[in-house]
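Form 7-S
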Amino acid sequence: MVPRPRSEKARQSVLDAMRAALSDHGYEAVTIEGLADAAGVSKQTIYRWWPSKSAILGEALLEGGLPAADVAVPFTADLAADLRAWFSAMSTSLADADGVAIARALIVVTASDPELGLALNEKLAAPIREWVAARVALAVSAGDVRADADAAAIADQFVAMASYAALLGRPLDEARVEATVAVLLRGIAASGR
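Output:
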């Protein structure tokens, strides 16, 4: 038996229902019955297209926006100030209810479907890596940072700290941001700085 093709309208309705349910109630409260009701489709339609609610969530997040994925802080001449501004903006953006729900849901999705989790984490990390690579390159050219500073490793730390803030459900406080930036700068500073 050939499976029925997806109705794009019904598929979008289910994905929208997942995003709304995640935002309103958190991943744990999402049910297939609730999604079917909100989307105006049958449970059988959902199960025909997705094997689990984590698969629906993964598709909804891949196609929709992820909170804080677009945080961009303009560059200034002060590397430390730029790093502090980025950490503050990112952690504040991720610490709202949507950010917390998505951070926790990403853990569930990654645990149940590592390939999908990897794609979602890459979507979230890509803009961070781009910002960090550009800012580190600027600092290297200014002589503030060692030429061998690993922008990818630095970006991974940024992702980890942003994820930590989201899981806590609150922005990193000023002291935590300051301490993080100080440690980072000690590790990558050009000699004599």
